[in-house]
């Protein structure tokens, strides 16, 4: 029995040895494979891209994936033109082309338009056959490039270069079958409207009105010309919330307006606060910007109703010559002159001259007025980054001082409306001189320095014998004499730095500035009694009682 157990044990051991020997190669192979796997480093959890868990991390990932288009360059080529979307960092994805009407449309994904001086790019008629090249930003971080053909849609090819995405455009040719005897008429025109996209009054920067959270209305030169306006009151009559104050041109010493119910006596000329007393002549006005609402943050001590900023005409780089004349009732006539252009062949020195003369009588006896306006301007361009503008504006206004008729005294119709109850030599005379310079230097596409200086001299003189009280007989008007002379000197200095920069996908404009103003005034006045006058049978006293 023992021998049998020993035999069984020996056989079992032998079988186990065979199995063990046969399993050695397999175990060895597994060991080698295991060693090969352990030679590779096992990645840690921090090495994997983690999803955003906060709004800040999400904005950072979006900003990192967006590509900013900082410039658009359109140039001619042998085949047509090249449009280059310039980028500083990142590479634009190659978009697909589509044709809509006569336009080739390219929508660039994951991109934002970050031009230094504008929110969109447009160039009309860059070459023959291409009517418009526009680059605009779209919602959803997209930028659209639209190239519109004149007669047919152009063809375009896309490629990537070191500077950015390049569109090679070839104008399309319209193929139309026509009879040999057919007459073809091509009509071209230019849209002229009253829309002004930008204004500088609210922010002292050239910012689109749509981006300014304030109420701004701009009266362009086209409206002033179409209305035939000669004064500021005429030009502002269509502006809501603005009404003229005590602006009787034959009496008032200053121009004033009511803006949202508040009186505004100080007008602004090219951003400078002025105390101008002479009526502003429209011959030298480029546009009028009206800001409704508080503006003391940028303009200092002003009324909360708003401000009125008058922008003067500036030299043009193309020759321009205009001479106009107006005639009207009561011997009114007014010639105006507007000439501009370059003074040098390279166009670095530009000039502009505006002049106007106005002479008129009135339906009132002895009442007349005369106005002279001259405004020369010179601009010198040192380089593409630096320029200076020198300007001078002179206004002379002389008119009869007329205070009208008393509201009591006789039955209606007994006193004609033309009757003048003062003296024929009563006058109100104003002389204004504005002069200064505007210096501008661009450090780069995003940073600019401006330094502006303005000097104003104003002289205001009046002499009159005017009515004071109607006596009980309802025909005797007591009068008084007054002589006033006021001289004022005003100095203004503005220096500001403007910068454009971005934080992620948000664009910013920074303004830092200094505004200084110094003013002196000298006033002289004489007052006394004067002879009364019969309002029904007036007799003029032609000599002042204090002279």
Concise description?
This protein has 547 residues and is mostly beta strands. It contains 5 helices and 29 strands.
Could you characterize what this model shows?
It is a single chain. This protein folds into three domains: 58-170, Immunoglobulin-like (Sandwich); 198-312, Ferric Hydroxamate Uptake Protein, Chain A, domain 1 (Beta Complex), CATH 2.170.130.10; 322-534, Beta Barrel (Maltoporin, Chain A), CATH 2.40.170.20. Helix content is 12%, strand content 48%. It is built from five helices and 29 strands. Strand 28 (476-503) and strand 29 form a beta hairpin.
Count of individual domains = 3
- Number of helical elements: 5
- What is the CATH C level class of the largest domain, in words? Mainly Beta
CATH architecture level-2 label of the largest domain: Beta Barrel
Please give the order of strands in the largest beta sheet: 21-22-23-24-25-26-27-28-29
By DSSP, the count of extended strands is 29
Taken from the alpha-carbon principal axes, the silhouette is elongated
What topology does this entry show?
Elements: H1 2-39, H2 55-65, E1 67-76, E2 81-87, E3 97-100, E4 103-109, E5 111-113, E6 121-124, E7 130-138, E8 142-149, E9 155-161, E10 164-170, E11 198-199, E12 207-208, E13 215-220, H3 221-227, H4 232-235, E14 242-244, E15 257-259, E16 262-264, E17 267-269, E18 272-274, E19 285-292, H5 296-299, E20 306-312, E21 320-328, E22 332-342, E23 349-361, E24 368-381, E25 386-399, E26 427-442, E27 447-470, E28 476-503, E29 506-534
Parallel strand pairs: 1-5, 17-20
Antiparallel strand pairs: 1-2, 2-10, 3-4, 4-8, 6-7, 7-8, 9-10, 11-12, 13-19, 14-15, 15-16, 17-18, 19-20, 21-22, 22-23, 23-24, 24-25, 25-26, 26-27, 27-28, 28-29
């Amino acid at each position: 029995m023992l021998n049998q157990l020993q035999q069984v044990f020996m056989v079992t051991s032998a079988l186990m040895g065979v199995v063990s020997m046969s399993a050695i190669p397999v175990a060895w192979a597994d060991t080698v494979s295991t060693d090969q796997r352990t030679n590779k480093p096992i990645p840690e959890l921090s090495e994997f891209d983690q999803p955003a868990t906060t709004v800040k991390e999400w904005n950072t990932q979006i900003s990192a994936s967006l590509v900013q288009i900082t410039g658009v360059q359109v140039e001619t080529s042998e085949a047509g033109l090249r449009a280059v979307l310039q980028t500083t960092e990142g590479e634009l994805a190659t978009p697909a082309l589509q044709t809509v009407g006569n336009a080739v449309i390219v929508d660039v994904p994951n991109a934002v338009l970050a031009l230094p001086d504008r929110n969109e790019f447009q160039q009309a008629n860059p070459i023959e056959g291409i009517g418009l090249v526009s680059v605009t930003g779209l919602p959803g971080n997209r930028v659209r490039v639209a190239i519109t053909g004149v007669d047919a849609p152009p063809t375009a090819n896309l490629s990537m270069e070191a500077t950015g995405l390049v569109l090679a455009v070839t104008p399309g040719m319209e193929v139309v079958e026509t009879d040999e005897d057919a007459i073809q008429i091509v009509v071209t025109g230019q849209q002229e409207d009253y829309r002004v996209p930008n204004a500088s009054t609210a922010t002292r920067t050239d910012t689109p009105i749509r981006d300014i959270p304030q109420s701004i209305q701009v009266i362009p030169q086209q409206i002033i010309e179409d209305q035939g306006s000669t004064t500021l009151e005429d030009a502002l009559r269509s502006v809501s919330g603005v009404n003229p104050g005590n602006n009787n041109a034959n009496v008032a010493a200053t121009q004033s307006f009511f803006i949202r119910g508040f009186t505004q006596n100080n007008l602004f000329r090219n951003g400078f606060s002025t105390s101008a007393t002479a009526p502003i002549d429209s011959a030298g006005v480029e546009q009028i910007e009206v800001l409704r609402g508080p503006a003391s943050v940028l303009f200092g001590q002003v009324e909360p109703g708003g401000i009125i900023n008058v922008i003067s005409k500036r030299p043009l780089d193309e020759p321009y010559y205009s001479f106009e004349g107006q005639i009207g009732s009561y011997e009114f006539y007014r010639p105006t002159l507007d000439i501009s252009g370059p003074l040098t062949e390279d166009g670095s020195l530009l000039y502009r001259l505006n002049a106007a003369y106005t002479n008129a009588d009135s339906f009132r006896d002895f009442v007349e007025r005369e106005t002279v306006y001259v405004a020369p301007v010179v601009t010198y361009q040192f380089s593409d980054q630096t320029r200076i503008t020198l300007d001078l504006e002179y206004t002379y206004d002389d008119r009869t001082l007329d205070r009208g008729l008393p509201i009591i005294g006789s039955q209606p119709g007994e006193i004609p409306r033309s009757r003048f109850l003062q003296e024929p030599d009563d006058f109100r005379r104003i002389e204004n001189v504005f002069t200064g310079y505007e210096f501008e230097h661009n450090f780069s596409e995003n940073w600019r320095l401006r330094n502006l200086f303005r000097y104003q001299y104003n002289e205001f003189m009046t002499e009159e014998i005017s009515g004071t009280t109607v006596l009980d007989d309802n025909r005797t008007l007591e009068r008084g004499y007054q002589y006033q002379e006021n001289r004022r000197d005003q100095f203004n200095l503005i220096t500001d730095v403007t910068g454009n920069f971005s934080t992620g996908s948000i664009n910013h404009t920074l303004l830092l500035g200094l505004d200084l103003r110094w003013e002196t005034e000298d006033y002289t006045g004489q007052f006394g009694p004067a002879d009364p006058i019969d309002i029904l049978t007036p007799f003029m006293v032609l000599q002042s009682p204090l002279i």
